[in-house]
Design a protein that fits this description.
The chain has 174 residues and is an alpha+beta fold. The protein has four helices and seven strands. It has a seven-stranded mixed β-sheet. The radius of gyration is 16 Å and the shape is globular.
Length: 174
């Protein structure tokens, strides 16, 4: 297996990011979007996050981007400025090989470097045991579950909330 490297995302990665995310939208429940965004929209999202100094990274094997992760705003209110929500997507043919865990590990470190204090995992579908397990293994604790708040693929879906302190967390003011 080709070694995995993780690096900051760049504009040249948008096509791969779009492909990975489109599969997740069309075939999974991690995202509650029902129509995959095109490359222009995905580039706009990447640029918006990078412009505000949110971490956005990709996992690469050789020259191929096989996953990505980013931290984005949890809510658009000033008091939430120290809290981020993580998003992690891996190419479907490489699920359950530790790539998501490596991405989340790097994302946590990157978010701490920027000065964020809390990270939330907002996990689509309580049956998404892989994502729940990765978050738990990296220090996230279960905060709660919104039950049956999304409807996709003919069924109601839960959202699982998990939280992890970053840096000194709530121990000191930002």
């Amino acid at each position: 297996m080709t070694p995995l490297s993780i690096r900051p995302a760049a504009a040249a990665d948008v096509a791969a990011i779009t492909r990975i995310y489109a599969h997740a939208v069309l075939h999974g429940t991690a995202s509650f979007e029902t129509e995959p965004p095109d490359e222009t929209e995905m580039a706009r999202r990447l640029d918006a996050l990078l412009a505000k100094r949110y971490p956005y990274i990709v996992a690469q094997m050789g020259a191929v981007v096989v996953g990505y992760a980013y931290a984005g705003p949890y809510r658009d209110r000033r008091a939430y400025d120290w809290c981020v929500e993580d998003s992690i997507y891996v190419a479907p043919e490489l699920h359950r090989r530790g790539i998501g865990r490596q991405l989340l590990t790097h994302l946590i470190a990157a978010a701490e470097l920027v000065g964020f204090r809390q990270m939330l995992g907002v996990i689509g579908d309580s049956a998404n045991t892989g994502s729940i397990g990765v978050h738990a293994a990296l220090g996230f604790r279960h905060i709660g579950t919104f039950q049956s708040i999304g409807f996709k693929y003919g069924r109601w879906l839960d959202t699982v909330l998990m939280q992890r302190a970053l840096g000194s967390g709530a121990g000191t003011p930002p």
